[in-house]
Structures are given as structure tokens and as C-alpha cells.
Inverse folding.
């Protein structure tokens, strides 16, 4: 084998490898990452597309063999995944874990109104339909800020530490964070989870204002602020990923 083959680089890997399966072909996008320790196959959190992260020194042939060997697993993963749910007319989305139906109304002024009818919840969105996704996202961000601000205030008061600011972001890797200058950041998607989960997340980040780590001391603070924290933590582990398919085009 030549040295060139052994030290296969990005340029030698195709962008996509097509796998064969009895139910039909399945395409896997290849990403080259020289820092990767091994080949990792996963579904993209947002789009559900199969992605293989390839380390350095791996040949296209090796990648193909590995992926084909995992094709049953991959097809099962793809089938398990719920479809994305863009914010469009007729979509049903959770807000504080309660299903809300999105309805579009042809009116010039762009607003979002919450209607509660016969036990059903409707989010009535007016204005240009092409702006619906952004409008609903903005409304959810506002709700998230409102609930998180209230939750953080209660925990901060109890702990005796105040954050310098609260930021609402769209992060896929983390639900929340606490910076050295006491800024607490949260993903707006937490507003779709049950309120006790949002409250746990707020308590978790507030506790970092005392302990910038995940030591026993840190968890003791969390337990103090939010006695049922284990339930919220487990919910995020089990269902958190599912909240990333809302407001995303398929
Ligand atoms: Zn933490």
C-alpha cells in the first residue's frame, strides 16, 4: 500500500456514500474531521440527515464498508425519528407541554394571538404566511424569556446570587449555560417542555452562579432550589432531542 493511500485526506473522500438496503438506497453525508478519534455515524439533530464524521487516515473504501455494515441500525434510527414540524398552518406544537394548533389568518398586520377554545389551544398568526415561521419563533422566544426570567428570579433570590443578564438563544448542543461574567443563556425551545423542566433548567444555571462545575456541592445547590430536579433532568435526557424538530423545514 502506498503512503498516499494510508494517509487519506478529505479530498479523497466523496461528499456522499450511497448504502444499499432492501427498503431502498440510503445516502450518508461524509464530514471530514482530522481531530475525530474514530468514525461516527449519527443523524443530524435538525434535519435528520445521516452524517458520518470521518477521522484522518481513513480510506473511502473503509468508510463504505463500515457504513454498509451499520445500514440496518441506520434505517431503524431513521424510521424511529419523528418528522420535522415546521411552524406552518395546521401544525401542532407543544407550548409548556400543551398542544397548540397553528392557524394562519390573512390579515396585513403580523401578530400572534393565543386563543383558548373548548379546551383547545390555538395560536392565530396573521400577516404574510412566508413570515409565519419567524413570527411563531419570536413569540415562543418571548414566552421562554418570560418564564425563565420568573424562574431565575426565584432561584437567584433563594441562592443569594444574581445573574448579570439572561439571554435566549437557539443552541442545539446545550439547553443552558452560565458564563464567568454571570450571564445565563438558555435555548428558547425549553418553552415547549413541561414547566417543571424549565424550572429545573433555570435552577441548574442559577446554581452555577455559586459553583462553576458539576461537583457534589453544585448538585446540592440544585437540589435545594429544585427538590424534584432529577425528574426534570431525566425528562431532558429522554425527550429533549425531540424538541429540536419543531420549526425546522424537512
Ligand atoms: Zn451545568
Amino acid at each position: 500500500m502506498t503512503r498516499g493511500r494510508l494517509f487519506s485526506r478529505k479530498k479523497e473522500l466523496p461528499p456522499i456514500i450511497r448504502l444499499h438496503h432492501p427498503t431502498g438506497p440510503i445516502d450518508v453525508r461524509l464530514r471530514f474531521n482530522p481531530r475525530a478519534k474514530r468514525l461516527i455515524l449519527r443523524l443530524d439533530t435538525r434535519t435528520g440527515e445521516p452524517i458520518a464524521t470521518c477521522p484522518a487516515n481513513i480510506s473511502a473504501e473503509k468508510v463504505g464498508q463500515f457504513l454498509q455494515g451499520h445500514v440496518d441500525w441506520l434505517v431503524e434510527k431513521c424510521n424511529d425519528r419523528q418528522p420535522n414540524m415546521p411552524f406552518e398552518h395546521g401544525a401542532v406544537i407543544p407550548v409548556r407541554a400543551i398542544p397548540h394548533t397553528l392557524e394562519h389568518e390573512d390579515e396585513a398586520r403580523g401578530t400572534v394571538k393565543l386563543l383558548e377554545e373548548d379546551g383547545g389551544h390555538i395560536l392565530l398568526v396573521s400577516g404574510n404566511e412566508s413570515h409565519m415561521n419567524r413570527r411563531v419563533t419570536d413569540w415562543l422566544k418571548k414566552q421562554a424569556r418570560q418564564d425563565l426570567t420568573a424562574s431565575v428570579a426565584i432561584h437567584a433570590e433563594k441562592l443569594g446570587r444574581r445573574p448579570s443578564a439572561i439571554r435566549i438563544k437557539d443552541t442545539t448542543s446545550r439547553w443552558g449555560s452560565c458564563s464567568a461574567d454571570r450571564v445565563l443563556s438558555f435555548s428558547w425551545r425549553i418553552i415547549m417542555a413541561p414547566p417543571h423542566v424549565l424550572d429545573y433548567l433555570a435552577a441548574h444555571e442559577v446554581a452555577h452562579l455559586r459553583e462553576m462545575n458539576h461537583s457534589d456541592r453544585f448538585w446540592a445547590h440544585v437540589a435545594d432550589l429544585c427538590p424534584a430536579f432529577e425528574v426534570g433532568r431525566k425528562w431532558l435526557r429522554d425527550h429533549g432531542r425531540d424538541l429540536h424538530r419543531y420549526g425546522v423545514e424537512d
About this structure: Residues 1-8 have pLDDT under 50 and may be disordered. Residues 92-245 form a domain with the Zincin-like fold (CATH 3.30.2010.10). DSSP finds seven helices and eleven strands in the chain.
